[in-house]
Each structure stands twice: as C-alpha cells, then as structure tokens.
Amino acid sequence: MEFNERPELNERDKALKYVSRLLDKASKDPKGNQKDINELLEVQKLINQKKYGLVWEEHAEKVDKEMETKIPVFIEDKNKRIDNGESKKINFILEGDNLHSLYLLEKTHNHKIDVIYIDPPYNTENEGFTYNDKKVDKNDGYRHSKWISFMQRRLVVAKKLLSRDGIIFISIDDNEYQNLKLLMDEIFGEEKFVTNFIWRRKTGASDAKGIATITEYVLCYCNNPNKKEWNSIFKQNEQSYDEKRYRYKDKYYNERGPFYYDNLDRGGLNYSDSMNFGVKAPDGSIVYPNGRTSFVNDGWIWKWGKDKIKWGFENGFLEFQQSNKKANGWALKYKNYLNVDNSGKLKVRSAPFKNLITSVINQAGTNELKGMFENKTPFSNPKPVELIQFLVSLCNKKDARILDFFAGSGTTGQAVLNLNNKDGGNRTFILATNNENGIAENITYKRLKKLSEGYTTSRKISEIIFQKKLTISSLKNMNVTLDKIEKVIKKNNGKYQKIVKKISDNTIQVIGEYSKGTLMPQIQFNMRYYKTDFVRRDSGNLEMDLLRNVKKLIELGNEMSIKDLHAAIVSRQSEVKKLNLKGIKRVYMRGRVHIMMSPDEKNRYYLSGVQIIDVPESLFGEELQGWI
Question: What is the pLDDT of residue 135?
Fold first, then answer.
C-alpha cells in the first residue's frame, strides 16, 4: 500500500470544496433558496475561521506506519557492554529511530521517568531536519507543519513516561520556539509550565545582521500541576540568600549562626482571639499585638501561640526591645537564625534558582568533545556538559531516572555520570538515538566507553566547581564568599591539576582544570547497548518471537540484569518443573502456562515465595490480542 505522508491532508479543503459545490449549485438553481445559501456561507465561514491554539497540517511518518505490520523489539550488542559500576543499576543506549524506542519505553517506563532532557532538531533554514528519510529544507512549504507533527508524536509519549513529579526540559531556539510552547501547552497543559530558561550560548556575534542573537531557550514543564509542591520537586539554590541580613550574633552563634530580627506581631493574617493575648514585658507591663496595652480586635495577632512564646524566651529566640514607635513602648521580636529554623531544627537557607543561564557557553560543548576525540569535532554543536548537568541537578532526586531521546553525542549521559560523581548520587540514564552517519556507535557509545576506561585529553578541560553572582550585598559580605571558596578549594584539592579563581560577567568562579595530555580518571558505571529490531505481526509464531525478546525489556524496565533481579523467564510448560527456584524471587511466564500449572507446581512456587508475573501480557498484551 502506498505510503501517504499526510493522511489528514486537505480534510478542511475537501469540506470547503464540498460546500463550494453546494453553493455553486444553489446559486445556479432558479428555485434556489436564499436561506440555504446564507447557511452554506456561514458554514464556509466557520470552517475557514481561525481558532486559538496550534493548528497545522498533520503529517505521518514511515517509522510510525511500519508499526502496523511490524512490532519493534530490542536486541543487545553484547560487545558494547560496560560493567565496572559498584551499583547493580544499569544505564542504556537505545540505537534506532526514537519513535520505536519510545514505543517500547511506554511498556517499560510508563510514569517512571523523573527527568527528560531533549535537544531536538531546531529546523533552521540552513540545517533543516530529516523527515521520512528526506532533508526538510527552507523551500519546503510544509517545513513547520512537518516539524510540529514530528515533535507532537514524540512528546505525547514523553508525557506518558514522566512520573507524577517528573520534569521535562527542551532546548530550542527562535525558529520553532513559539510552536513548541503552544504544542507543550496543549500536550502537558499551561498549568504545568514552570519557566523558560534563557541561555546565553555565546558572548558575541560580530557577523550578525542587524541585531546579534546570542541566546537560546530551554522550556521547562513539571508533570505535577500543584505549584505548592514545586519547591520540594526542584532543588533549591543554597547559595542564594541575603547574607547581609544575618548581621547579629549572640551566645548561640556556634550552633545557630548569625541572625536578624523580625517583629512577632502581624496584621492582615487570619485573625484568631487565641493569638491575641498579652505578654509580660521586662518592666512588668502587659504587651499586646500592634503595640496595644489591652485586648482589642484590630486584626493584629502574634505569629506564635502562648506555649511557643514561652519556649522562645527560654531558648533565646525571643527578645523585647524598647520602641518609641509602639504605644506600649515595647517591640517583641524573634530571631531568624541562619542555620536553624524557628523551632531550633537545623535548616539550610536557600531560594529557587533563576531562569537565566550565563555561566556556560556553547563552545564548551565542542571543546569537551575535542578533548575526548583527538582534537577533532565528530558532532556539530553539542550542548555543554555543564548545561545539562545544571538542568538535571534541578531535580531534587539523587536516584532519578533520566531520559534523552535525542541523545546525539551523549552529553546527557556524561552529565549524569559527572553529577553522580559530584554529589554521590545514583541516577541512571537512557539515551535513545539513531545511527545516522554512525553517530550511536562511533560517538555516543565511544564517548561513554572512554569515560568508563579513562582517557587522555587532547586539550585543556575546565569544570566550574563554584560560582556566585556579585551584588552589592555579596560585596559587603565578601569575607563569607571567600570563606566558601576556600572550603571548595580544600574539598577539591588533588582532584584537578590546577584550580583557578576568576571574575566573569559579574560572577566569581572557581574552576578546576585538567591540562592537555592528562589521563582522566575512569568513571564507574554499568551500561547496555540495545538495537531496534522487528518481529512481523503476521509471524507464524508471534508469541514465541515476542517471548524471545522479553528479557531485554524486563532488564530495561528494572534497570538491572535478570540475574541481579533474582528473576527467571519460563516460555513453555515443560520448563515449569525444571526451574530451580533457589534464589529466585520472581518468574515471568505466559498466562496460559501459569493457568496450566498443577496444584503441586503452584504450591512449590508459593512456598518458595516466588512472584509469578504474566508475560508478555504485561509487555506485549496488545500485540497478541487476536493471535491464535
């Protein structure tokens, strides 16, 4: 059957042509009804009118169409295994069209992915992107609609993969930003939009026409629409607070740090008589909220109740100060300590990160690859590791699952490994990419292989290990910043060949450097390399063909080998008796094999504490419907 790239082509045009024929016929008919003509004109107007939202000519893809006759499966290239990690967790490279990989990830990672980062084709006039094996160039009248169709199909699946608190980051530039934003609002919902990061990717462009564009964007959405929970989902910036504010010290300084005062009374809060009471001042007078000397309901209350105020005085958190601004002559103030909260519990002061990224430039990504590939540039415009590392670090989970289904040169994989090394995390990555021009095998895989073995740099490599924006407040408290810098340098002493300090763009940075020719230490991790293959739907033995490919999906879904999962797979009834259950915790088997087990066999599995999981219903149930 001939492939139709645009199955929805001209649905609107067909409707308009049909209405036009009716109008033509009605206008030529001497007995034509003017009311009918007016109604047809209104229908024509409604079909033609512009609606709010993203509207585009829908296109189909060959890779999507071929799944009507073929089922994607994974086969492993065992020669590309990496096994040197202390953790049993496994990372993955999935080679093949990312639509096929996403199709399979729907089965293994539905609502399990914590972070998605993608750097999709930007659809620029010069570069275009590949659609149905053809390069889409600037002369293609459907350039934008093809790109939107391409992205929409993949983002719909991406939403299904994200966990409840999952975060998705998408790099983009001016060419398709407006379309991507509307598309994301439609798929994820406007209420899940977090921010648009502005990334200053370069410092200048002297060859620009008119105005130099030096920025790109990273759209960010959170799958959890409850904004009240975002501060716990996103990591907070522990270096972002007003140090100048904490300028007082008392006898608790060593354990609580410096502090500032704040008034204990408040107006305009939810009023309650129970929070409007008198407190005895040092001179014996009774003090009420808002400087009153007696009980009046003027909307003012204490922030703390009676028991908490008693505790506050006993533990040095409260203090009376004389005040000529208060009618009763006293101001009751509580102390906000830097290192503890108002209950005396340890607390790390922080604030949300900002959506402006200026510390990393795009050239750094090229330099990083050159440093690993004999000073050659095997991939155009790779994103800098530090950019992706920063974005991934915003997820407040050190065991997060990270997916990049436009993996390219593998920057996301390196960013995850670097971040784990930096903060002791146990994150895992899944990188999906095609092998166009050998990219998956010769760049993505080789890059990660070099990291696992250690490699000799062919140029200088720099890593930002500390940075802080310089403000009037931070300059006045530079001694605090310098103290932090010395701690960072001490912590990283011996890790780098050289540690330098510099100020760039009103930001003070501490940078660790490896010189050219340095033997970089290996990073320990485990990885599997899967390739996409296919099983025909009209296979004479579809069930067994799919069962032969179940193991890879089980390992992918659990990010662990079958052995480490203490699992086994049973394909035939004869294997039920033969299986040694020692050390086995779960057995995957076909439903009818399970049903045909004898009572003795079921009892043996039950007494061994073995969980039986129906397969491939859990992985290929839909594909086997109707199979005989």
Answer: 86
